[in-house]
Write a structure and sequence with these properties.
Number of strands: 11
Structural class: alpha+beta
Number of helices: 22
Largest sheet: 4 strands, antiparallel
C-alpha cells in the first residue's frame, strides 16, 4: 500500500496533468478561475497554451478530447454525463456520446496471474482451455474465451490491474474539483457538480465489482426464467470474484445482421416487439432494467430469442416512481396535462424556484404537440428528448436512474428500428401503460396494496413510541441542538483570510523597503546589510503585485 506522502505527491502530479490537459484544449480560463494553475510551476504555466488544432473545434469536441486524453476514469465520467441532458447542455451531451476508450489490452500473463490469484488455483485446474488473445478490451477490464473442464464454452471477464487505485485517485480529485467549481463559479450550481461526481462514484464502483454484475445477471435469469423470448447467459458462481466474472459464451447475430439471415429475416418485426416487451417488463414490472441496451449489447439467437450482454450498468425504479411514470405517459396520450405536470414536479427536484404558471404553459405546449397523433406517428425518442429539454429549461433535476431509463428507451427505439425499419416503440409502450393503469383497479391488486400499506402503518405505529421516548430523553438531557448549514461560508472565510494575509505581507514589505531606504540614504547602516534587505523587499513587493494582478482582483 502506498505511503501517505507518496500518495500526496502522486495526486499533486495528477492534478498538474489535469490542469495542463484542459489548458491545451482551450480551457485555460476555467483552470485559472478554479485555482488549478498553482499546481503548475511558473515556467510550465507560461509555456502551456491552447493548441492550434483545437481552435476550430466546438466546446463539446474539446471537452470530449480532453476527457479521452485524461484516461479511462474521465472517459467513464463523460459517458455518465452523457446520460444527464437535464443538467448538461445538449451540444456537450451529444458530443460526449462519441467518447471512445483508447485503452490497449494488458498482457496475457497479467490476466492469467489475476485469474489464478482470484480463483486460488492454477489456470490449468480452473480451465481446460484459455485463449491468450482477448476478445475485447475496455477501460475497466478485458474478456478472454475459455473452456471449463466439463467442456462448457465460457468467457472470462478480468478486471484491469491497479484500476481500483487509479479510479479512487481520480474520483477523489474529481470531488475536490467539484467543490472548487461550485465555490468559485457560482453559475455552475445549475449543473450540480458535487452530486454529479457523487453519482458517478456510485456508478463506477458498481461496475468495478464483478460479483455485483454476476448477481444482476442471476436476478435477470430468475425474472425471465419462464419467458422464452429472452435468454440470459448462465453465470458460474464458483468462478466469480470481485476481479473475475465467468459466464456462458453466447454465439448470436448482431441486430444489423438479421436482414441477411434467411431464417430470421421474416421474423424481424416479432423480434423487435419482443425486445420492447422484455424491456417494459424489466422496468415497469420488476423495477430492475438493463441500463445500456445499445446495439452492441444485443445478440439474436438462432431461434429468434434475444440475449442481452454486459449487465455492469443496471437501473432500479421503486413502485411509486413506476406508477408516476405510467401516469405521465398515459396523461400525455389523453391530453391531461395538468395531472401529468404535477406528477413531473413530484418526481423531479427543482434547482431553483419554479414559475409554475410558465412551467404549466410550456408543459401544455409540449403535450399539445403529441396529443391526437396516431400511434404509428408517435416518435418516442423525440418525445423523451423534448421532455428532458423542458426539464433542463426549468432547471428540474431528475433522479439518476430515471435519466438512465430515458436514455435506455432512446437506445431501445433505435435498436428496434435497426431490427425492423417499420417498428415504432410508441405502438408497444402506450397500450402497455394503459393496461398497467387498468390493472391498478383490479380487486387483487387493490387488496395487495391495502395489505402492504396496513403493514407499513403498523410498523410505523410501533416505532412512534420508541422515537418519541428517544426525543424526550434527549430534550431532558439538553442534547437537542440546531444545526445550520450556511453554504458558501467556507469560501468567504478563506477569501477574507487570504486578503488579510496579503495585507500583512504588504505592510511588512512596505516597512522593510522604507526602513532599508532610510538606512541607505542616511549612511548610518552597513551597506552590505541594508542593500540586500532593500532588494529582497522590492522583489517581495513585485511578487505581491504580480499575484494580485494574476488573480484578477485588483
Amino acid at each position: 500500500m502506498e505511503s501517505s506522502p507518496l500518495r500526496f505527491f502522486r495526486n499533486l502530479r495528477r492534478t498538474g496533468e489535469i490542469a495542463a490537459v484542459f489548458i491545451n484544449h482551450g480551457f485555460g480560463d476555467l483552470v485559472d478561475r478554479i485555482g488549478l494553475a498553482k499546481y503548475l510551476n511558473w515556467g510550465r504555466r507560461k509555456l502551456l497554451k491552447s493548441k492550434r488544432e483545437y481552435h476550430s473545434l466546438t466546446r463539446g469536441e474539446r471537452i470530449r478530447l480532453a476527457l479521452e486524453t485524461l484516461g479511462p476514469t474521465f472517459v467513464k465520467f463523460g459517458q455518465v454525463l452523457s446520460t444527464r441532458p437535464d443538467l448538461i447542455p445538449v451540444d456537450i451531451v451529444e458530443e460526449l456520446r462519441n467518447l471512445q476508450e483508447r485503452v490497449p489490452p494488458f498482457p496475457c500473463e497479467v490476466a492469467i496471474h489475476t485469474v489464478e490469484h482470484a480463483l486460488k488455483r492454477p489456470l490449468s485446474e480452473a480451465f481446460a482451455q484459455f485463449d491468450r488473445d482477448c476478445l475485447a478490451s475496455g477501460s475497466l477490464g478485458q474478456v478472454h474465451a475459455a473452456r471449463l473442464p466439463n467442456g462448457r464454452a465460457v468467457v472470462v471477464k478480468i478486471r484491469r490491474p491497479r484500476v481500483i487505485q487509479e479510479v479512487e485517485r481520480d474520483v477523489a480529485l474529481m470531488h475536490e474539483l467539484a467543490l472548487l467549481i461550485q465555490k468559485r463559479i457560482p453559475e455552475s450550481e445549475v449543473f450540480d457538480p458535487i452530486n454529479l461526481v457523487r453519482n458517478f462514484e456510485r456508478t463506477i464502483h458498481r461496475e468495478l465489482n464483478f460479483l455485483r454484475e454476476a448477481r444482476s445477471i442471476q436476478d435477470f435469469r430468475r425474472m425471465f426464467a419462464r419467458d422464452a423470448s429472452l435468454y440470459v447467459p448462465e453465470v458460474f458462481e464458483d468462478y466469480c470474484t470481485e476481479d473475475v466474472l465467468v459466464m456462458e459464451h453466447i454465439h448470436g447475430y448482431r441486430v444489423d445482421e438479421l436482414q441477411s439471415i434467411p431464417s430470421l429475416r421474416d421474423h424481424r418485426h416479432r423480434i423487435a416487439k419482443n425486445g420492447a416487451r422484455i424491456f417494459m417488463r424489466q422496468a415497469f414490472e420488476f423495477g430492475l432494467f438493463h441500463g445500456d441496451p445499445h446495439p452492441g449489447n444485443f445478440r439474436i439467437l438462432k431461434d429468434g430469442s434475444i440475449c442481452l450482454l454486459d449487465y455492469g450498468m443496471v437501473g432500479t425504479l421503486d413502485e411509486t416512481t413506476r406508477e408516476q411514470l405510467v401516469d405521465i405517459f398515459v396523461s400525455i396520450a389523453n391530453n391531461n396535462f395538468r395531472k401529468s405536470s404535477h406528477t413531473v414536479l413530484k418526481i423531479g427536484q427543482p434547482l431553483r424556484a419554479i414559475d409554475e404558471r410558465q412551467f404549466l404553459a410550456d408543459y401544455k405546449d409540449f403535450v399539445d404537440s403529441y396529443y391526437g397523433l396516431p400511434l404509428e406517428k408517435f416518435d418516442i425518442s423525440r418525445l423523451l428528448t423534448d421532455f428532458v429539454g423542458l426539464l433542463a429549461t426549468h432547471r428540474i433535476r431528475c433522479p439518476a436512474d430515471l435519466m438512465l431509463l430515458i436514455r435506455a428507451l432512446i437506445h431501445l427505439d433505435s435498436v428496434g428500428r435497426t431490427i425492423d425499419p417499420s417498428f415504432n416503440l410508441a405502438e408497444e409502450l402506450i397500450p402497455y401503460f394503459r393496461k398497467l393503469l387498468r390493472d391498478r383497479y383490479h380487486p387483487g391488486y387493490i387488496w395487495e396494496r391495502i395489505c402492504r400499506e396496513a403493514e407499513q402503518m403498523a410498523r410505523t405505529a410501533r416505532e412512534i413510541p420508541v422515537e418519541a421516548a428517544t426525543l424526550l430523553r434527549k430534550f431532558n438531557k439538553d442534547e437537542l441542538g440546531l444545526k445550520l448549514n450556511l453554504t458558501g461560508l467556507d469560501y468567504m472565510v478563506s477569501e477574507l483570510d487570504r486578503c488579510s494575509n496579503r495585507l500583512v505581507v504588504g505592510v511588512i514589505v512596505a516597512s522593510a523597503i522604507l526602513s532599508s531606504s532610510l538606512l541607505v540614504r542616511s549612511g548610518a547602516g552597513n551597506d552590505w546589510f541594508s542593500i540586500p534587505i532593500y532588494i529582497l523587499s522590492s522583489l517581495l513587493g513585485i511578487w505581491l503585485i504580480y499575484g494580485i494582478f494574476r488573480s484578477g482582483r485588483l
